[in-house]
Write a structure and sequence with these properties.
This protein is mainly beta. The chain has 5 helices and 22 strands.
Length: about 375
Amino acid sequence: MMRSVIISALVSATLAAGALADSITLRDGDIEPAARVVTLADVADLDGDWAQAWADLVVAPMPTERLELTVQMDDVRRTLDGQKVHWGKLSLRGRRSLTVTRRAAAAEPVEPVTPQPQPQAEATPTTVTANPVGEIDITAPAATTLRDHVRQLIERTHAVGGDDLRITYLQDDSPAWSLTDAGCRFELEPMDRDLLGRVPIVARRWQGETLLGSERVSVDVSIRRVVVTANHALQRNQTITAEDVTVESRWMADGRVRSFDSVEPIVGQVAAHSIRGGQAIGADDVRPELLVRRGQQVTVRAISGGLVVKTVARAQEDGGLGELIEVEVRNSDKTRERFHAKITGNRQAVMLVGSNSSENQGGQP
């Protein structure tokens, strides 16, 4: 009876702590004039130790020539997903679309200059000759075509250019590509936020508050990236070794593939599904080796101060080493409680009661 009371108390305390999940609240942000990247701390309020642990996570590159950058909540969520964030311990909320502004550089103080007397030059008679307007040397800035504006947008978005960027302008002979920003300005709205592969773009020309016209153009975009590829076909649940993968440079045109650029994060993990030989391996293609499967009984050690209580719970989800999973324990009065525990071994897990950070739920049983 006493054992059940202790387990119930520990579980209840854990459930209460879990209800207070750390939060990331997105907001508009600003960065230093020379900053090249936007971090999570630049655009979010981080509440709790677990949330603050991701403060330095890069969520977007910041092109040096731009004063503003738009970041979507979905992009931030995908970035956090790539870091294997456990959403049971963390919530993401706030603005769906936020603006990052580059702060203006502080002006350096200018010392006053005292004018010095200059010697008087002897007056020399001059002759003024009227010149035709066409002969006046006035250098006006050259107008930029829609084609060049689209290229600049893609270069800024991916922070690449030159030989690492390949753009094919579809309907290359369309008059729209030759439109310029002379006397107006362009507003470009890509229909694909990744700006990779086939990308339709709506180009609007504005003169003040007047819309002069709207054109729809399309480009094919690919970027040369360092990726990790499979040397041969890999079966689902197969453990990946160094001999199974290769690092190479490849043209990528699918923004959905978030490929690794080194083998270290992959070796030792297992294939989440079948992988073709030669396929670029992304974050969605691998997962940690399963040590606990849904429905299995798991030995859970609940730790509170100097007290350790061991019980048996049933896993509600699959999980690998170091992952938090939900488990269910049946009490002596036939009631059931659910809580999260961190996997430490084969069908083994541990939980710390009263700890706000899942990083502290470590150690071997």
